[in-house]
Amino acid sequence: MASLKVIPAPLDVPVAPPVRRPDPLLRELLGETLRSARQRQGRTLKEVATEAGVSITYLSEVERGHKEASSEVVGAVTRALGGSLVDLLTDMTVRVVPPLDTVAGGAEGLHAVA
Amino acid sequence: MASLKVIPAPLDVPVAPPVRRPDPLLRELLGETLRSARQRQGRTLKEVATEAGVSITYLSEVERGHKEASSEVVGAVTRALGGSLVDLLTDMTVRVVPPLDTVAGGAEGLHAVA
């Protein structure tokens, strides 16, 4: 039986720099957030679309990030999911916040003077 | 000089129920968030529109919540303001979170089963 030999990594190998993924498009993030919320509730596209007053096809396109939903539709679907705009924004933020170990430097924020 | 007399409120007067304002439309919230960020930076519509590659008229309409900006434009304007999607979402959330003393009950969130 061959013995296992632990080979330590040489100290002069540079550590890979942290990777920050580019921002997704807002409609992609919105779509996956709405889809995830609906699926967590175990509801079908048809149920939520009907309650929100939009077509199933349209809701499906929005969830896949293929269509820009109007603000009225965003509001209607969010309410159909039992949430408010704050809940939606919070869910979206949580999805897009990069894991701590991949953040390169501090967040600047919109408050910073460019 | 008339004396000031403190009249205690009768105990049986019902306390007014907390008022929760209806959610603004997403485009209105987005517009006022972008405008506020630009103004905090002391920058003109022209400067930011030029950097984002959109017309001044269009950016002005977006800022006033009159036009639905495409996700590409939201991204371009956010970057022109020196921020990321997380920064934008955070700023929007802070603007729409109701003050603590007006919240009626706890937030349900999109996680709740309707």
From TrEMBL, chains A, B:
Residue ranges of domain HTH cro/C1-type in the record: 34-88
Specify the domain of life of the species encoding this protein: Bacteria
Q: Which Gene3D superfamilies match?
A: lambda repressor-like DNA-binding domains
Supply the InterPro entries for this chain: Cro/C1-type_HTH, Lambda_DNA-bd_dom_sf
Pfam families from the xrefs?
HTH_3 (PF01381)
Q: Which GO terms describe its molecular function?
A: DNA binding
Residues annotated as transmembrane: none
Q: Extract the SUPFAM superfamilies matched here.
A: lambda repressor-like DNA-binding domains
Q: Which residues form a coiled coil?
A: none
By what name is this protein known? Helix-turn-helix domain-containing protein
